[in-house]
């Protein structure tokens, strides 16, 4: 029986004047109940049956009335159960595809780096949280609907939050390694501030990633043990109170004092539980901050890459060859203004008119130049190539009509020149097609990362707000003798049901539909975006023979599904130098691991080895169109020695890896040969 507050304020004073009862416990920081009501028994003498009113009041302190929330529990059970089945189906697909892993431990120069699987970690954590949430719902049903003894009530409502915290923690930890530079040496972090550089070091991330969940568990488990002990004592005292005063028909001072004793124990237990939810709120804010930092850093990296790709649209267009004019029209017989106008006209029409100057370069020089340009950002490399084109064009134009230069210039055969022009055109068409595809997939990746970050961050914020509200209201709810905790727990139950349905459904269904699937694959060394075979002994006949011998392994790798057109390179990581020939072999021998790179969300880490074969990509539509056009014009390119050498090219520095985007027709993960 519960009395209205208006009629019990004065009535409670009457009860306390009639009996010498215990004073209220000291007021706590979060006590929100007015002092004239806080921890004061209602005046049971106003009831027709005072003893029955005392028994009903004592029962409601332990057995909360949650009748308005049971229909929502039924709905939540069905929806969350379906989400758990989806999560289990995702894991079964991973096991079937042999891509299921929890963490990997690549070796670095300073030790091993722990790289958790961000996607599967989040999926497992959400599935575990949904399972525990269902268990909590039906434990509450057994306690407060069926009337079973609620001996472990604090344990269930507190520990249910740990899988959710762990899921967000693993997701942020794995997402930290989605930017490939974070698995390289610490020198790449020197551009940041001192504190951020130290905190961003992979060794510090390893320690924090392992220690933070342990510290969180300790900060929750120790106070939970005290809260559970006090709650169990209060429940035991309540059971003894029922047995002692089972047959009593009138109110007595001993009966009311014993009721006060277990009530104060219960209030003390829920004060500790409120502090535990404050701890959960702080850990949730830590997860929220960490995930916001790593996702924002990844989005910023992608956006910078997109901005770097956009200005190069015109520079990587169709290549047009502008031949030098005859003698009387050459720049040697024209004024400076006419010469400059001709140069501007040629640059506007072609964007690159250095084919004649490039004809005297050897294939290894061309490959070495491409390798150096790949080490730079796209915008910087394009600007440097543009300045080199202008300088080479002016130098060639100034020496066109010079008899000394004409005698000193070596003769170049027409067939050899034609082959090298074809080679240059093919390379340019590859780069143009690759950049367009790369930019398209960069936008797709950016949108996917943004959607997942918005979903996880919003869910984490909502659960942090729910935990904070629970901490505030739970500390003072049991101080009110009119049992406001019943309505509070009902509201928390309904909110948790629909938060789990909305955000769990959004995340898991999106993962199942490949919206948030990891979109970067790696472990392949591609020929699509310029790699250098080096010069010197590394590009000689011995190196070619070695590459021919490794062709069988590459073919077997392609047949097994590891080759083919797997995707477009986004980021390229290398050891920093060309490293050709014997020197490159020594570098690979002493540092076989090379830089480790990861995929988005899955944080799939692979180590490059010296036995990795090259993946030959199928020609693009632009390449085929160019070949057909040249064939119709009578140019024989099938037996070109330069193209044969191009087909046999293999990078001698195997420490360079490229991170790849899968094309729409292929979503399978890349494998090592």
From TrEMBL:
Keywords: Membrane, Transmembrane, Transmembrane helix. Residues 390-402 have a biased composition (Low complexity). Residues 364-379, 631-641 have a biased composition (Polar residues). The chain crosses the membrane at residues 73-97, 118-140, 160-179, 199-226, 269-294, 445-469, 489-512. It comes from the Eukaryota. Residues 341-352 have a biased composition (Basic and acidic residues). Signal peptide: none annotated. The keyword rRNA-binding does not apply. Residues 531-541, 573-582 have a biased composition (Gly residues). Residues 322-410, 531-596, 621-673 are annotated as: Disordered. This is Uncharacterized protein. It comes from Ceraceosorus guamensis.
């Amino acid at each position: 029986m519960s009395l209205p507050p208006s009629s019990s304020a004065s009535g409670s004073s009457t009860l306390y004047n009639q009996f010498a009862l215990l004073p209220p416990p000291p007021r706590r920081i979060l006590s929100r109940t007015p002092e004239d009501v806080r921890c004061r028994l209602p005046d049971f003498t106003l009831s027709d049956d005072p003893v029955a009113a005392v028994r009903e009041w004592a029962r409601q302190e332990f057995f909360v009335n949650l009748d308005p929330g049971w229909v929502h529990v039924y709905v939540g059970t069905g929806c969350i159960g379906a989400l758990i089945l989806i999560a289990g189906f995702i894991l079964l697909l991973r096991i079937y595809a042999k891509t299921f892993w929890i963490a990997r431990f690549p070796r670095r120069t300073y030790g091993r780096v722990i790289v958790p699987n961000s996607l599967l970690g989040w999926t497992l954590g959400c599935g575990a949280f949904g399972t525990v949430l269902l268990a909590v719902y039906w434990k509450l049903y057994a306690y407060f609907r069926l009337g079973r003894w609620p001996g472990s009530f604090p344990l269930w409502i507190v520990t249910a939050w740990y899988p959710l915290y762990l899921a967000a923690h693993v997701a942020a930890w794995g997402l930290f390694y989605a930017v490939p530079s974070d698995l390289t040496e610490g020198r790449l972090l020197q551009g940041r501030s001192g504190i951020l550089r130290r905190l961003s070091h992979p060794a510090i991330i390893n320690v924090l990633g392992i220690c933070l969940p342990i510290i969180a568990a300790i900060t929750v488990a120790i106070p939970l043990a005290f809260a559970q002990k006090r709650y169990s004592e209060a429940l035991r005292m309540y059971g003894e109170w029922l047995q002692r005063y089972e047959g009593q028909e009138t109110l007595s001072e001993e009966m009311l004092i014993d009721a006060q004793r277990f009530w104060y124990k219960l209030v003390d237990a829920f004060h500790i539980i409120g502090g535990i939810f404050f701890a959960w709120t702080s850990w949730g804010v830590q997860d929220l901050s960490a995930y916001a930092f790593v996702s924002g850093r990844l989005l910023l990296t992608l956006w910078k890459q997109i901005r770097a790709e956009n200005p190069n649209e015109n520079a990587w267009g169709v290549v047009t060859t502008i031949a030098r004019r005859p003698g009387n029209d050459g720049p040697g017989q024209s004024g400076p203004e006419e010469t400059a106008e001709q140069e501007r006209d040629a640059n506007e029409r072609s964007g690159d008119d250095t084919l004649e100057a490039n004809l005297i370069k050897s294939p290894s020089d061309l490959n070495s130049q491409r390798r150096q340009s790949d080490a730079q950002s796209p915008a910087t490399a394009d600007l440097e190539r543009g300045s080199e084109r202008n300088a080479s064009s002016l130098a060639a134009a100034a020496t066109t009509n010079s008899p000394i230069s004409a005698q000193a210039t070596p003769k170049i055969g027409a067939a050899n020149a034609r082959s090298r022009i074809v080679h240059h055109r093919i390379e340019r068409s590859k780069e143009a097609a690759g950049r367009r595809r790369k930019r398209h997939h960069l936008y797709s990746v950016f949108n996917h990362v943004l959607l997942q970050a918005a979903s996880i961050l919003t869910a984490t914020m909502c659960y942090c707000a729910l935990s904070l509200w629970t901490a505030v209201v739970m500390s003072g709810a049991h101080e009110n003798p009119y049992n406001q905790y019943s309505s509070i727990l009902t509201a928390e139950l309904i909110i948790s049901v629909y938060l789990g349905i909305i955000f769990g459904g959004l995340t898991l269904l999106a993962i199942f539909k490949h919206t948030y699937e990891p979109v970067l694959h790696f472990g392949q060394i591609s020929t699509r975006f310029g790699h250098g075979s080096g010069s010197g002994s590394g590009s000689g006949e011995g190196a070619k023979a070695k590459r021919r011998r490794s062709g069988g392994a590459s073919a077997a790798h392609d047949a097994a599904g590891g080759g083919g057109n797997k995707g477009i390179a986004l980021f390229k990581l290398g050891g920093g130098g060309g490293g050709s020939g014997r020197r490159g072999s020594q570098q690979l021998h002493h540092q076989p691991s090379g830089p480790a790179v990861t995929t988005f969300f899955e944080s799939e880490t692979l180590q490059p080895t010296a036995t990795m074969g090259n993946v030959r990509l199928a020609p693009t539509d632009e390449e085929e169109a160019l070949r057909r056009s040249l064939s119709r014009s009578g140019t024989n390119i099938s037996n070109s020695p330069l193209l044969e050498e191009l087909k046999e090219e293999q990078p001698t520095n195997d420490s360079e890896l490229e991170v790849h985007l899968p094309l729409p027709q292929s979503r399978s993960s890349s494998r090592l040969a």
